[in-house]
From TrEMBL:
Transmembrane segments: none
Domain of life: Bacteria
Keywords of this entry: Glycosidase, Hydrolase
Organism this protein belongs to: Paenibacillus algorifonticola
Gene3D superfamilies: Glycosidases
Protein name: Amygdalase
A GO term for molecular function: beta-glucosidase activity
């Protein structure tokens, strides 16, 4: 019993939260660069406050992040020391095509990722590459309106054609879009969409979603043509919505919330829109922008595996007076009296991971890959940068046990597990550095101050033992 031989243990980061070097070597500006810290951040992420350029009144943490652009060799060597079998990372679209609509790529950007992938291979670490982890070149946002415009499919196709050919033999595992369902929750963060006052927000978001789904199928087609060994996955932000009560209306509300996310995966795995989404859009007078060949493309080029992120479960209610939601997450949730919460209010629910794995696997019968799971906490480091993070070890241990139960007792097929993030990086939801996830501490604060020195936390050695034992030894 246990995880199969060759199980892919590792960690996950994104370009915009780790690389920094936002204007180095020809890189263009991206939507994810323009997410400031502070009270305005959420409004920007939601596409409600327009911020298409930097201003002097705000701090933008992604500009420098943890400068992994210049530290990746040392960081990957630390990942290798833990025994990583896989490292999930993303490509910054604007490093490859700075504006996004060029016909020729930026060689410096291509070379950077080639060097990074070769560094992974040096340690027998498989790169798992997210093609776009919320990245959209700002030129495409300003000039074309981002994913609301069909031309984005062409620009994405060009990006995919270039990287699949350039990195053939270096990268086998791919994800087309990070947390594709987040376009409905945070449209500017997820897809570079700013919703104008005169626009129908639902129509804009579902038009953009359709274009991304077509682009995902096209990427899957190209990947398999370039190299039949390529494995392409989709990715869902999974949230395990629980009904607040056993009232049938609450049960139905939870089902509706779940379906709003699952419809993306329905299309990417089954190759067609589910009836419930089509009927919902009909009621909203939203017409999907199907073009000739879309249906065949979606049907013929479905994904090989399903990636998903899981941090916590949520509670929903059909009662409109239930508005006492907890903060700290882009998914609204009512409090769950049976669960403890993290420093940022995320409700810790290891069994929810097992439930989520079963729900997704039962629904699709495709291999799963947990590509994000971790605990953001306000770590306090000593003078040497050491953190006694038993709380993180406890969180991860309980979730890995739940994951093991889903595999052992429920028969779920699982390819791998990448902890978010193995090194401290900028938080996507809050922009903070103090919300730390890593096994590796980075000397950097919320104001961009610090030496960027890397140091090992207690959890570093713990995760090393977990990998060595293939998930059997979770003691600490």
């Amino acid at each position: 019993m246990g995880f199969k031989d060759g199980f892919l243990w590792g960690g996950a980061t994104s370009a915009n939260q780790s690389e920094g070097a936002y204007n180095a070597d020809g890189r263009g500006l991206a939507n994810v660069d323009l997410s400031p810290t502070g009270d305005v951040r959420e409004s920007v992420l939601m596409g409600k406050t327009k911020m298409f350029d930097f201003d002097e009144n705000n701090y933008y943490p992604a500009k420098e992040a943890i400068d992994m652009y210049h530290h990746f060799k040392g960081d990957i060597s630390l990942f290798a020391e833990m025994g990583f079998k896989v490292y999930r990372l993303s490509i910054a679209w604007s490093r490859i095509f700075p504006k996004g609509d060029e016909t020729e790529p930026n060689e410096a950007g291509l070379q950077f990722y080639e060097d990074l992938f070769k560094e992974c291979q040096k340690y027998n670490i498989e790169p798992l590459v997210t093609i776009t982890h919320f990245d959209v070149p700002m030129h495409l946002v300003k000039e074309y309106g981002s994913w609301r415009n069909r031309k984005m499919v062409l620009f994405y196709e060009r990006l995919c054609t270039v990287i699949f050919n350039r990195y053939k033999g270096l990268v086998k595992y791919w994800i087309t879009f990070n947390e594709i369902n987040m376009v409905l929750e945070a449209p500017f963060l997820a897809a570079g969409l700013f919703i104008e006052e005169h626009e129908d927000a639902e129509a804009v978001k579902f038009t953009a979603s359709h274009h991304e789904l077509v682009a995902s199928a096209l990427a899957t087609k190209i990947a398999h043509e370039v190299d039949p060994e390529n494995m392409v996955g989709c990715m869902l932000a999974a949230n395990a919505p629980y009904p607040r009560t056993c009232h049938p209306q609450d049960i139905w509300k939870a089902k509706q919330v779940e379906n709003q996310s699952y419809f993306f995966i329905d299309v990417q795995v089954r190759g067609e829109y589910p009836a419930y989404t089509l009927k919902d859009l009909e009621r909203k007078n939203v017409v999907l922008p199907f073009e000739k060949g879309d249906q065949e493309l979606l049907k013929q080029h479905t994904v090989d595996f399903i990636g998903f992120s899981y941090y916590s479960s949520s509670v929903v209610s059909a009662d409109p007076t239930q508005t006492d939601t907890i903060g700290g997450n882009l998914f609204p949730s009512l409090p769950n009296p049976y669960l403890k919460a993290s420093d940022w209010g995320w409700q810790i629910d290891p069994l929810g991971l097992r439930i989520t794995m079963n729900n997704i696997y039962d629904r699709y019968q495709k291999p799963l890959f947990i590509v994000e799971n971790g605990l953001g906490a306000a770590d306090i480091a000593d003078e040497k940068g050491y953190v006694e993070d038993d709380y993180r070890i406890a969180y991860l241990s309980e979730h890995i046990q739940a994951m093991r139960d889903a595999v052992d007792y429920d028969g779920v097929e699982l390819l791998g597990y990448t902890v978010w993030g193995p090194i401290d990086i900028v938080s996507a939801s809050t922009g903070e550095m103090k919300k730390r996830y890593g096994f590796i501490y980075v000397d950097r604060d919320d104001h961009g101050q610090g030496t960027l020195k890397r140091s090992k936390k207690k959890s570093f050695e713990w995760y090393k033992k977990v990998i060595e034992s293939n998930g059997q030894n979770l003691d600490f």
